[in-house]
């Protein structure tokens, strides 16, 4: 599955987020994950922040949830259309 684009920006698919979750929970570094899924390291770090559950794993690394990241991304996209209403 290819990334969806909206206004020239590309978004990760849920499938890609699940792959990030699997690789990250296996102890992979963000640099290696970026290389494996073909995204920038910065995009991986942003994604890890987006899906942070508030917990730490056994290695004291933040726990990443693909489902939480997907939900957050969809809410952010939905919210973008209501800029005028939000500013009033």
Short note summarizing the structure:
With 88 residues, the protein is an alpha+beta fold.
What does this structure look like?
57% of the residues lie in helices and 16% in strands. It has 88 residues and is of the alpha+beta class. Strands 1-2 form a two-stranded antiparallel ribbon. A hairpin with a 2-residue loop joins strand 1 and strand 2. The chain is globular, with a radius of gyration of 14 Å. The N and C termini lie far apart (39 Å). The mean pLDDT is 87.
Radius of gyration: 14 Å
Q: What distance lies between the first and last C-alpha atoms, to the nearest angstrom?
A: 39 Å
Mean pLDDT: 87
Identify the strand order in the major beta sheet: 1-2
Q: What structural class do the secondary elements suggest?
A: alpha+beta
Q: How many separate helices? A: 5
Percent strand: 15-25%
Order of helices and strands: EEHHHEEHH
The global form is: globular
Residue runs with pLDDT of under 50 for 5 or more positions? none
Main beta sheet strand tally, sense and closure = 2 strands, antiparallel
DSSP E strands, number:
4
Helix content: 55-70%
């Amino acid at each position: 599955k290819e990334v969806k684009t909206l206004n020239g920006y590309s978004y990760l698919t849920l499938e890609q987020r699940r792959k990030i979750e699997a690789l990250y929970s296996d102890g992979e570094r963000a640099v290696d994950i970026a290389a494996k899924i073909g995204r920038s390291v910065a995009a991986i770090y942003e994604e890890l922040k987006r899906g942070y559950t508030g917990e730490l794993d056994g290695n004291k690394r933040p726990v990443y949830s693909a489902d939480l990241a997907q939900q957050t991304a969809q809410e952010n996209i939905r919210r973008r259309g209501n800029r005028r209403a939000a500013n009033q």
